[in-house]
Amino acid sequence: MTQRTLGLDDRLHEYLTRTFLREPEVMRELRAETARLGEIARMQIAPEQGQLMGLLLELIGARLVIEIGTFTGYSALAMARALPDDGRLIACDVSEEWTRIARRYWLAAGVAGKIDLRLGPGLATLEALEAEGLGGRVDAAFVDADKAGYDLYYERLLRLLRPGGLIMIDNAYWGARAEDPQGRTPETEAVRALNAKLRDDERVTLALVPVAGGLTLARKREVAR
């Protein structure tokens, strides 16, 4: 027994993924193609995180999900697979180049019909979705985009989320830079500020899952305290 989260060295990580990871071939192929892009491939989430996110969506019975930051589509694919046949994932990104890769794999996986890709600035897309009447109707959201916009995305998503809905926010650790007092980049400051804000935000129930780069879970309370 231990009272602290166990650190993952390469050996333990390999055991956990080998033992628990359920990743279909199409998702492995997408990871492999993304890895060949070079350094930018680090923007893709870990497969064990994708599996966890899919499970969380199943647990809350999600049917309508928003993603801010799609990249080559792995996280969207993981979530879309967890939605029912009539479920809908609104994937928001600014890159036609990267999402062109995503579209191929969504089609190959048979989930393209569930995914509504919106190209454009994330905040503008969220404002448009609220104008479309989605306020208070969204079941879950995943944020993995520009860190400077995280707080704005969070506030807008809270308005779109139904009571009991879930926001999942990537990179809570920000590569361990969030806790480094020497970290003074705008991105680091933005992550650090949002983490502190979430800690005290009584509108949500909060937890941090130490998977990959740290996944923050914020569940919108039925009634704010």
Automatic annotation (TrEMBL):
Family matches, as InterPro entries: Cation-dep_OMT (IPR050362), SAM-dependent_MTases_sf (IPR029063), SAM_O-MeTrfase (IPR002935)
Please name the Pfam families in this protein's record: Methyltransf_3 (PF01596)
Q: Which residues form the signal peptide?
A: none
The record ties this protein, via PROSITE patterns, to: SAM_OMT_I
Q: Which UniProt keywords apply?
A: Methyltransferase, S-adenosyl-L-methionine, Transferase
Methyltransferase as UniProt keyword: yes
Q: Name one GO molecular function term.
A: S-adenosylmethionine-dependent methyltransferase activity
What top-level branch of life does the organism fall under?
Bacteria
**Gene Ontology terms describing biological process:** methylation
Which named protein is this? Class I SAM-dependent methyltransferase
- Name the source organism: Eiseniibacteriota bacterium
Which taxonomic lineage does the organism of this UniProt entry have?
Bacteria, Candidatus Eiseniibacteriota
